[in-house]
Amino acid sequence: MVLLVDDRWTGSHGIARFAGEVVPRMRVPHRALTGPVDPLSPLDVLNPGRLRLSGRDIVYSPGFNAGLSRARQVLTLHDLIHLDDPDERSTAKRLYYERLVRPAVRRAGLVITVSPTSARSIRTWIDRDDVRVVDVGNGCSDIFLEAAVTLPPDDATFAYVGNLKPHKNPRVVFAALAQVTGARLTVVSRDSQAVQELAAEFGVTDRVRAVSDCTDQELRDVYASSRALLMPSLSEGFGLPAVESIAVGRPVVHWAGCEAVAQVVGPHGAAVQDAHDPSAWADTMRAVIDDRTGHPLPDAAWRHRHSWDAVAGRVDAALTSF
Predict the structure, then answer these.
(1) Quick one: residue 4, left, alpha or beta (phi over 0 = left, psi -120 to 50 = alpha)?
(2) Which of 9, 156, 299, 318 stands 20 to 30 A from 38 (CA)?
(3) CATH superfamily of the 142-302 domain
(4) Is the pLDDT of residue 243 over 90?
């Protein structure tokens, strides 16, 4: 038996971050899965590196990509957004998940995910009691766990980190910002043009700063120099920016109905009850600005649970038991 690990996931998106942190830390003996194409390419279904394997072999992917193979394929389904979100799903994606991903998971008898919310959704979708769904969580790079920077008491800068897709619900942040006099927003996103367009639409161009292609140090400084992270997502598989912000000692303002983010944030933030009401978000932002009690850094147990070493260890344990 040979374990092959798909190490081709690269980039700045969530799966690539997970892969880039977890795969180098894995201790279970393995080889790299080779292939001539990107794991997101439709041609990866016919990856010769996967096709030539025997039924005794195992392939582990830190993402959702499956293909034709006699080997068992252990996938990491971070969420089911490709099926659940109207703006993300398509006939092609539905067929891919129904004809390749779900059969691969059922045949393997094991699938990895990153949150209790995703685990519950996946169990329902797989609809098989003999498939283990293992929640390994998500990690936070060491640089975010260093001592937090003290904010000036009159600072009113907020952060938004992520893309601007509809399920991220970014518009409410810009609309709320327009209602909070003096507040500023730093947006970390690859789509700087869309950020400026939203800022112009809501008349807050002079109070919005767009940042892209951050290093971890630069991203940490964005969190540390902000009063709080604004995370209005309607759905998430996990919510890594929330962990990073909490690690730096900054609270997270989030929608109460986004279960995965609410689970991550716990007592380290404030929940807004209406995802789409700018006034509700503006009121919470004002409350955060006025709060002078401070937000302590998370304890050692929290820091260990969200370390990449611990996440990789849980992946190793799942594959070893398998």
Answers:
(1) beta
(2) 318
(3) Glycogen Phosphorylase B; (3.40.50.2000)
(4) yes
Secondary structure (3-state) at 134:
strand
Enter the tokens of residue 196. Answer: 């400026």
pLDDT tens across 166-181, in order? 999 999 999 999 999 9
Nearest CA to 159 out of 210, 201, 206, 217 is that of 210
Looking at every residue in the chain, the average pLDDT score rounds to 91
Contact criterion met (CB below 8 Å) for 133 and 122: yes
Could you confirm whether domain 3-139+307-321 is CATH 3.40.50.2000? yes
254 by DSSP, 3-state: which?
A: strand
Share of residues in the chain with pLDDT > 90 (%): 72
Q: Model pTM greater than 0.85? A: yes
Query: Per residue in 201-217, is it b (16+ CB within 10 Å) or e — as a string?
Result: ebebeebbbbbeebeee
The three-class DSSP label of residue 153 is: coil
Which tokens is 152 given?
A: 């000036």
How far apart are alpha carbons 67 and 317 in whole angstroms?
24
Shortest CA distance to 160 belongs to which of 123, 208, 126, 121? 208
Q: What is the DSSP annotation of 41-110? A: SGGGGG-HHHHT--TT-EEE-SSS---S-SSEEE-B----HHHH-TTT--HHHHHHIIIIIHHHHHHHTE
**Residue boundaries of the structural domains of the chain:** 3-139+307-321, 142-302
Strand locations in 202-268 (E): 208-211, 228-231, 252-255
Residue with tokens 């990856």: 47
Q: What is the pLDDT of residue 182?
A: 92
pLDDT at 151: 52
Query: In angstroms, rounded to a whole number, what is the distance separating the alpha carbons of residues 241 and 269?
Result: 13
Number of other residues whose CB lies within 10 A of the CB of residue 191: 15
Degrees to nearest 5, angle at CA 189 with 188 and 193: 120
pLDDT exceeds cutoff 70 at 269: yes
Parallel, antiparallel, or unpaired: how do β-strands 184-188 and 3-5 relate? unpaired
| Complete DSSP assignment for 261-276 | HHHHHTTSEEEES-TT
3-139+307-321 and 142-302, same CATH topology:
yes
